[in-house]
Design brief:
Number of helices: 6
Distance between the termini: 39 Å
Radius of gyration: 18 Å
Helix content: 40-55%
CATH architecture: 2-Layer Sandwich
CATH class: Alpha Beta
CATH topology: BirA Bifunctional Protein, domain 2
Number of strands: 4
Number of domains: 1
Largest sheet: 4 strands, antiparallel
Structural class: alpha+beta
Order of helices and strands: HEEEHHHEHH
Shape: globular
Strand content: 5-15%
C-alpha cells in the first residue's frame, strides 16, 4: 500500500467527488438522506478476521449509496478493471431478514412480481437475481403461487455497466436512470428490513 498510496489517494478522492455528484443526482428522484459522501466509499482492506487467507486489500472500489441512511438498503456501484456493475437488494442476508422477506412475499408477492415486470426495470436489470433453494423453503407448500420468489436465498438486481460511459459526462445520468428504475424494488426490500 505504501508504494501505491499516492495513486490510491487520488482515485479515492475522485470517487468521493463522484459519490457527491451521484447523491445530488439521486436526490432528484428520491428524497435522499444526504450524507457525507466519504461514508459511501467501502473500505479497501478485506476483513480477514474469519477469512485469514484473503489478501489484505481488495482489488476493487465500491460505492454504497444509502438513500435512507445506515440500516436500510443501498445502491451499490462496483468498480474494478473489466467488471463495473451496479446492484441493489439483499445478498446473503441474516436469517431474520430472510424470514421477514419470505413473510412479506407470502402476503405481497403479487406486488413484488409487478415490480419485477416493470418495463424500465426489465430493460436495465432483466430478472430478479440471487441464489435460490432447489425446493420450497420450510413452512411453504410447493404449489404456493409465489414459490419461485420464496425460493430466493438472496434477492438482487444487478447489471453490468460500460465504464467508458460511466466515467463520461453521461455516466451520472445512466446511474440515475438505473437508480430510478430500482426504487420500487428497494422500497419493497426496505419493508422486509423494517419488519426483520
Amino acid at each position: 500500500m505504501d508504494a501505491n498510496r499516492k495513486w490510491y489517494t487520488e482515485i479515492r478522492n475522485g470517487l468521493i467527488d463522484l459519490a457527491s455528484t451521484i447523491q445530488a443526482s439521486f436526490a432528484e428522484e428520491y428524497p435522499m438522506a444526504m450524507m457525507d459522501p466519504k461514508k459511501y466509499l467501502a473500505r479497501i482492506n478485506n476483513n480477514r478476521r474469519f477469512h485469514p487467507d484473503k489478501p489484505p486489500y481488495k482489488n476493487n472500489f465500491a460505492l454504497m449509496i444509502k438513500r435512507r441512511g445506515p440500516g436500510w438498503g443501498d445502491f451499490y456501484l462496483h468498480i474494478e478493471p473489466d467488471n463495473l456493475f451496479v446492484g441493489t437488494g439483499i445478498y446473503h442476508p441474516p436469517r431474520e431478514l430472510l424470514l421477514a422477506l419470505r413473510d412479506l412475499i407470502d402476503v405481497r408477492g403479487d406486488e413484488l412480481r409487478q415490480i419485477g415486470q416493470a418495463s424500465d426495470l426489465k430493460e436495465i436489470y432483466g430478472d430478479l437475481g440471487g441464489d435460490k433453494l432447489k425446493k420450497q423453503p420450510k413452512g411453504f407448500e410447493a404449489d404456493h403461487p409465489h414459490i419461485d420468489l420464496l425460493r430466493h436465498k438472496d434477492m438482487i438486481l444487478s447489471t453490468q455497466m460500460d465504464e467508458d460511459i460511466i466515467f463520461s459526462t453521461q455516466g451520472v445520468k445512466e446511474l440515475q436512470k438505473a437508480f430510478k428504475a430500482a426504487i420500487p424494488f428497494m422500497d419493497f426490500i426496505d419493508l422486509a428490513i423494517e419488519s426483520a
